[in-house]
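On clarity, I found the account of how folds are encoded harder to follow than it need be. What matters is that the chain and its backbone geometry are given together, residue for residue. I therefore recommend that a typical entry be quoted early in the introduction. An entry of this sort, consisting of the sequence and the corresponding C-alpha cells, reads as follows:
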Amino acid sequence: SDHMENICGYLMKYTNLVTGWQYRYFVLNNDAGLLEYFVNEQSRHLKPRGTLQLAGAVISPSDEDSHTFTVNAASGEQYKLRATDAKERQHWVSRLQICTQHHTEAIGKNNPPLKSRSFSLASQGSANSPGVQRRPSQNAVSFFNVGHHRLPTGKRVPIMQPDHLVDVREMMSQAEGQQRDLIRSIECLPASGHLTSLDQDLLMLKATSMATMNCLNDCFHILQLQHASQQKGSLPAGTTISWLEPKISLANHFKNGAAQNFPAEINKPASVREEQSIAEPCQLTREPEEINPDEELEDICDDKEDDLGAVEEQRSVILHLLSQLKLGMDLTRVVLPTFILEKRSLLEMYADFMSHPDLFIAITSGSGPEERMIRFVEYYLTSFHEGRKGAIAKKPYNPIIGETFHCSWRMPKSSVATDAGTSSSAHSPSEQVTLPKDAEGQAEPDYYTVKFVAEQVSHHPPVSGFYAECVERNMCVNAHVWTKSKFLGMSIGVTMVGEGVLHLLEHGEEYTFSLPCAYARSILTVPWVELGGKVNINCAKTGYSASINFHTKPFYGGKLHRVTGEVKQNMTNTVVCRVQGEWNSVLEFTYSNGETKYVDLTKLSVTRKRVRPLEKQGPFESRRLWQHVTESLRDGDIDKATEHKRALEERQRNEERLRAETETPWCTKYFLKDGDGWVYHKPLWKTVSAAQTQQTDSN
C-alpha cells in the first residue's frame, strides 16, 4: 500500500470490430479499487463511461506488441488497452497490479476459508453438493465486495493462508474423479441401440467436461504461482510450502476412487496421442544431422490440390472467421480452418521453389557478370510457378518451431548449361531432366547434386531459414523469411520479410535478393493467388542489379499475374535485359543485342525432388510431423485433419509455456543467428575457405 497511488491519463481502448481503437481518459482509484474511464479529461467530473472492479482482476501485458495490455475483471468484463510506449505500459501495469493485489487480499480477510467437504457422484443434488453448500454471501457481487470500501490507513492486509488452495485442490481432485467416472460410463455404453457411446450429445458432454477441467486446472495453476510469489520473502529460510506443486496432470492425477489405469485420452485416436507424446525438443538431440543423399528416393508424392468447390459448403465457417477480424489485423496468431490447407508444410513450399535445378546450376556457368545476373533473374522468375502449385489459394501448414525439411535434386550434367553457347539447352521445354537409370551405379557420377535444408527457427515471429548448395559447382544460397499475414477485407496479404544471398564462390560474387508479397483474393468465393510488390537483386562486386515488379490486377481491366523487370549496369546505368509477361505462364526476355527469348513455364521441365522415406525421417521433419494431417486431407476427412492439427499446435503451445516458465531459451539445429538474419551452420563458403587455407598451409 506504500506504493499505491492514483494515476490518470490517456490510453487507447479497443471498442469493437467496427469502431476499433479510441482514445479514452482513464483514472485508477486506488481507495475504491476501481479503474474508470471517460471520453476525455474535460468530462472527468461526469459519470464514468465505464468502471471495472479490480478486486480479483488479472492484469496481463500482451505479447502481440510492447504497448498493449488487458484488464480482465472477475465479472468477466475485459478492457483491452494500449499505451503510447513500453515504458508507459509498464507504469500502468505495475500500478494496476499493486492495486489489484491489495484489494484481493482484503477480500481474503473478509471471506475466511471454506471448511473441507467430501463429495461423491451419488450425492448430486443433495445438501452435500458444492452448489448447495455454497454460502448465501458467496455470490459474485458479495464475494468481490462491490460496495466501495476504504481500508483503515496504516494497516497492511495479511497474506492469504495456503489452506484456501488446499480446499480448492481437494474439490478439484474430487471433480476430476467424477469426470473420469462420467467418461467411463459413456464409454461403457453399447455401440448400437437407443443410446450409444457415439451419441452426439454425449460426445459433446465428454468434450465439454474435459475442456472445463483443463480450464479449471489452468486457473488453479495460476493461483498457485500467485500465492507462491506472495510468500517469497515472508517465510523463514528453508521453509517449504507443501501445497505448492506442479500443474495438475489430468492424465495422472486421480482421486475419489478413480482407477489408476484409466486412460486420460481414451477417446482420441492413437495418432493424436502419439503427436502429443513426442518428446520435448529440449529432450531430443539438437545436434545437426548429416543427411546422406543416397538415402533419399525420388519423390512419388503428387498432391495436386483439389478445386475449392468445398468453400461454398464452408462459407458459414469463413463468415464466422471474418466476423472476428478487422482490417489490418495480424493473422499470425489466427487459427484458420483446416479445409483451406495445402498438403505440405511452408518449409516444403520453399523447397519447391528449387524445382528447376538445371537453371539454378547454370547461373555460375555464365561467361561474364552480365550473363550471370541475367541467368539468375531467369531462374528467379521461373521459381514461383511450381512453388505455388498453381493458382489455387490454399495455405501450407504453419511450421512449428524446430521443424525441418530435407531434400535434394540430381541433375544430369548433360542437361545443364555450361557456357553461353549452350545456354538454350537449359531452357528447352523438351529437355529430359530425369536422372538416367545407369547414373546411380557409376563411381564418378555424371550428375550434379543440389542439397536443400530448411528449419523453422522462430515461432513468434514466425521465421524460416533455408539453405541450398551444389558442391560440384561451388555455389549456394542462404535465406531467412518472416511471413507476416494481414486481413485486407475480401483478401489476405502475406509479406515475406527477409533476405536471401546467392554465393557464386568460383567468381567471388554475392547476389542479394528479396521476395514479393502474396495475396489470396476472393476468399468468399473461389480464392486465387496473386503476387505483388517490387523486389531487387544486387551484386555489389560486379555492379549489376535487377529491379522486378510483380503487378497486382487493377480493379478495372488489366491482366492477371503480370510481371516486368530490367537488368542494368549501375555504373553506366545501361539496361542490358528487359523482361515482361506472366509469372505463371509465358515470360519474354529481350536482350541488349536485340535478341528475344520466350520461356513457357507451363511446359518447362520439372525435376522431382528426392526425399527420405517417412520411416527414416526424424520426428520433427515436416512430412513425418504432419503425416496424419496430410493423410486425413487426402481422405477428405476434414474433422480428423483438424484434430491432428490441433494436437500439434497444442503441443507447441505447451512446450513454449514450459520454456517460458523455466526460462529455457530455444536452441536451433541448423541455423545460427547473425545480426537480424539467420545463417546455415556449415555454409559452403566457410567449407571452401577452410579447405583453401589448409591447402595454403600445407604448401
Remarks:
- Residues 392 and 528 are 5 Å apart (CA to CA).
- Residues 200-231 form the longest helix (32 residues).
